[in-house]
Structure formats: structure tokens, C-alpha cells
Amino acid sequence: MTDVKQVAADLLAEQDALDEVVAGISEEQWSLPTPAPGWAVRDQIGHLAYFDGTAAMAISDPEAFKAAVQELMAGGDESVEDRTLYRHLSPSDLLDAWRNNRRRLAEVSAGLDDGTRVEWYGPSMGAKSFLTARLMEAWAHGQDVADALGVERPASDRLRHIAQLGVITRGWSYVNRGLTPPEGDVRVELTAPGGEEWAWGPEGAADTVRGPAEDFCKVVTQRRHVEDTALEVEGDLARDWMDKAQAFAGPATEGPRPRSTGTA
After folding, report:
1. Distance of CA 162 to the CA centre of its chain
2. Fold of the domain built from segment(s) 4-143
3. How far apart (Å, rounded) are the C-alpha atoms in residues 233 and 144?
């Protein structure tokens, strides 16, 4: 079983990989629109910078973190979005802020163990789940950046963390919509970037999702519609899940429409 130290190391590697994508882009490219409505490349990095910073605070000073959450939710002249995207910073200062915040997150994460719980915006989270969520955020927002810049990112076996999160949040994808999770199992069989086969769920299940791990991760993080991937989905349970999958916290969202419709 993966321990919290390995997740922390993979989070750092995922952040560094995204840094390599944005480190050399032009000021104009920082302003390119991304698939997230109203968000430019700089907003994607600003989001990561802010929440990597508050994640470090949540670990190192839980009481200060709780106070910061109350202050954020209290409102003010700026929207929550504007206050959490660092829109007042230049691209170079924004990149520095993200690097500093994630460096601090790495430092304080070194003291976590598998039994540690961390305060967050909803319920507290186990340390491993907490860092896995940060890794998912880095990868998913990095996908938005890559799409905006028109670049391909090499997939890595770090995707196993996100795939695992996608599987275990199947029920959450329904509960978050006010629905009762359907009974029945779905078998998930994925091919890792490195060629290994990853599987979850009972063998012989009538409903299955099979295909590249990267495509599965794009669907559960709502970066691609399942029809725009190489996933093979069999059975009504599996199909309904892939249409509703949401591996991240927050209000239920519909995700992208199939690109073939021209409305994604």
C-alpha cells in the first residue's frame, strides 16, 4: 500500500512537471483562455498557488487556517474567486508565489504520517488523502493549462493516485448530486503509462470500464467527456457513473460536453 511519504514525493514531482510547462511561456500565453470558463492560464496557476499555501497552513497551523477560512467566507469587496486566484500579481510574481507556497507545503508535509488528519474546507482529511487531492489538483489544472497552450504532457504512473481516487469517489459522485448511489459493482481495468495493468472491483462484474489510465483520470476529473476518450464502457451502471464522475470536492458539476458536438 502506498504511504503518505510516497504521495508527498509524487505530489512534488507533479508540481515540478507543471512548472516545466509554464516556466518559459510568454506574458501573452499567461492570459490565454483555458477550458474552465473565465479562467486564463494564470488563473489556473493562481488557484494552485493559493490552495497550496493554505494547505501548508492547514498542516503547520490549523488554528490560523480555520481563521483564514472564516475570513475568506466572510466576504468583502472582492469575490472569493478573485481573492483566491492571485490576479493582482504579475506572471513572474505569480510563478514565484506558487513555487514558494508549494515549497512550504513540501516542507511541512515531511512531518506527516499515515495517521495524521488535516483540517480542510470541509471535513478534516487523512494525510494521504489530503496530499492525493493536492496531486489531483496539480494534474487536473495542469491539463487545463496544457490544453490552452496546445501542448502534450507525458503521462506518468503518478496517475495511479488519481485513478484510485476516481474509483473510490464513485459513490460521492451521486451523493454530491443528491442522489442515492446505485447498487452493483463496476470493474475498472486500466493500462498504466508504464504498461502495468491496474484493476479495481470484482472480476467478472457485468459492468466494466477499460482503457488507458490517463483517459480515466481525465474523465473523473471532468477534463474530458468519456466519448472523447479511448475508454471502453460496458453496462448501464458503468456508463451512468462515467457521465456523473467527479473525483473532486465542491458542488456537483456537469463536466465537458463531447467535443464532437462542438460545444465542449
Report:
1. 8
2. Four Helix Bundle (Hemerythrin (Met), subunit A) (1.20.120)
3. 24
- By the 8 A CB rule, do 209 and 187 touch? yes
88 φ/ψ angles, rounded to the nearest 5 degrees: -80, -10
pLDDT of residue 122: 86
CA–CA dist 259, 174 (Å, integer):
24
Look at domain 159-249 and name its CATH class.
alpha beta
Tell me what the mean pLDDT of segment 69-89 comes to.
Answer: 84
**Residues 140, 133 contacting (CB under 8 angstroms):** no
> What's the pTM value of the predicted model, to 2 decimals?
0.94
Name the residue among 85, 84, 80, 83 with its Cα closest to residue 43.
Answer: 85
Compute the distance between CA of residue 200 and CA of residue 163 in angstroms, rounded to an integer.
Answer: 10
The SS3 call for residue 188 is strand
pLDDT at 132: 97
Q: What angle do CA 233, 237, 241 make, to 5 degrees?
A: 75
Domain limits, the chain: 4-143, 159-249
How far is 52 from 45, CA to CA, in rounded Å? Answer: 10
What one-letter code names the amino acid at 161? H
- pLDDT over 60 at 30, yes or no: yes
Would the pLDDT of 260 be above 60? yes
Using an 8 Å Cβ cutoff, are 94 and 44 in contact?
no
Model confidence at 178: pLDDT above 60: yes
Rg (CA), the chain: 18
Task: Give pLDDT, residue 263.
Answer: 40
